[in-house]
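> call design_seq(struct)
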């Protein structure tokens, strides 16, 4: 019952915000040059939908996002688990990791363009740097948070290193890793979009940059809303995966409805 009420409140908030926005533009209280009417934004999105080239832009941005997300996650989890298990290696590499993490990612974007060109991989590389550290630090912390009693019992039962990784370390770090996966989705999109801003001939970032260059606020807002919708869809998919993978954890939504 509470879940349905919450959904109703969410729908009402959307109606109030966008309805008030549209009413403000119609009453000339809001300047449409800076904040175009929601109806105009929706019309722009439908115009893009009718254009076959729009799907090429979507495909390119999603490909860059997916590759950056997958590669950054794989490297982050592998590195985090390794340094979580090897305290000595973590101490040696700690200043280098912190130093690289302190570099603004926007500064790295022109370097990736210089190294990898204006094609797909310069955007993927930027997305990887944004995703990597989120999953890396969460995976490392998750491994270090393993209950020492559980670890000792597993060793007493004769578990070797691979068995410990599979049955102790990874299950213990699963909540940390999956939490970072949901957070890093938006950063993967940001990396792809920033790369397209700096130089690209296709992609949603290219469409937004083109609209911005023409002072077309409608196109800018339409692109932003589409990007937000993509992130929400991916987040919903990860939510389903999280509930299936971590079956032992209480479901907050079920508890709320009970």
């Amino acid at each position: 019952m509470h879940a349905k009420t919450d959904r109703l409140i969410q729908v009402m908030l959307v109606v109030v915000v966008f309805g008030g926005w549209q009413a403000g533009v119609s009453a000339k209280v809001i300047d449409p040059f800076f904040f175009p009417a929601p109806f105009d934004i929706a019309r722009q999105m439908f115009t893009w939908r009718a254009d076959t080239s729009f799907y090429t832009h979507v495909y390119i941005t999603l490909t860059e996002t997916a590759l950056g997300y997958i590669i950054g996650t794989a490297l982050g989890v592998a590195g985090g688990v390794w340094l979580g298990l090897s305290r000595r290696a973590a101490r040696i590499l700690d200043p280098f990791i912190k130093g690289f993490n302190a570099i603004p990612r926007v500064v790295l974007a022109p370097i990736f363009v210089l190294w990898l060109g204006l094609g797909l991989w310069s955007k993927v590389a930027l997305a990887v740097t944004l995703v990597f550290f989120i999953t890396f630090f969460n995976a490392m912390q998750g491994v270090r948070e393993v209950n020492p009693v559980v670890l000792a019992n597993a060793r007493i039962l004769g578990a070797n290193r691979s068995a410990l990784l599979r049955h102790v370390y990874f299950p213990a770090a699963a909540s940390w890793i999956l939490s970072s996966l949901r957070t890093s989705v938006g950063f993967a999109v940001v990396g792809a979009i920033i790369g397209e801003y700096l130089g690209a001939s296709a992609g949603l970032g290219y469409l937004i940059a083109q609209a911005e260059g023409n002072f077309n606020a409608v196109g800018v807002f339409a692109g932003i809303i589409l990007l937000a919708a993509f992130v929400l869809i991916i987040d919903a998919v990860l939510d389903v995966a999280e509930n299936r993978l971590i079956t032992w954890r209480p479901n907050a939504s079920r508890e709320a409805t009970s």
